[in-house]
Structure formats: C-alpha cells, structure tokens
Specification:
This protein has 104 residues and is mostly helical. Helices cover 73% and strands 4% of the residues. The chain contains 4 helices and 2 strands. Helix 3 packs antiparallel against helix 4.
Length: 104
C-alpha cells in the first residue's frame, strides 16, 4: 500500500511540473498570478527556515538559550545591510558555529 501512495505522489508531482512545459499552460499570466508566482519560493523557504530556527526536536525551543535564533538574527542583519545571499550564508554559518560553541 505504501508503494502505491509513493507512486501516485510521484506521478502527481511530475504532472504538476510537466504541465508548465506543455502548450496547455497560457503563455501570458495575469499580473496577479505573476505576482503570486514570484512570492511562492519566498514563502516556502521562509517556512523551512523559521521551522528550523524555532523548533528543537519537534517542540518550540527555549528562546533564551537558542543559538540558532541569535545566529539567525545576526544573519538577518547581514542580509538587510548587504542584500547579498552569498555574504549572508558566508557570515551566517560561521556565526552559528561560534554561537553554538559559546553556548556549549
């Protein structure tokens, strides 16, 4: 039964991605749809990042001793000031390592 669910899920995922390559999709989307499509990656990434920062083992982490929250705040400041993804990751990860080392 689990294999049936996996195969059906794979087919649905493939169909959702393949439909954009076929002539079925309109070439010109409305401005509202274009705006919504631009925001999808941001919304998905945001939920993954926030869940990783806030949750610890499936439970809400203690904010007073959460090194990931401190490092995320620092990385957020770097991202806000520089607007550079590479610099944010390049500084944010060592900052996380430093904060985890200090909290250990």
């Amino acid at each position: 039964m689990i294999w049936v669910i996996i195969i059906i899920s794979g087919l649905i995922t493939f169909a959702m991605r393949f439909i954009f390559l076929t002539p079925v999709m309109p070439t010109n989307l409305s401005p509202a749809a274009t705006t919504a499509m631009r925001l999808v990656p941001i919304a998905v990434l945001w939920t993954i990042v926030v869940a990783e920062i806030v949750l610890d083992g499936g439970k809400i982490a203690d904010f007073t001793t959460n090194p990931r929250l401190i490092a995320a705040f620092g990385a957020g400041l770097i991202a806000w000031r520089t607007k550079s993804v590479i610099l944010t990751i390049g500084c944010g990860l060592p900052l996380l390592w430093l904060v985890e080392y200090l909290f250990a």
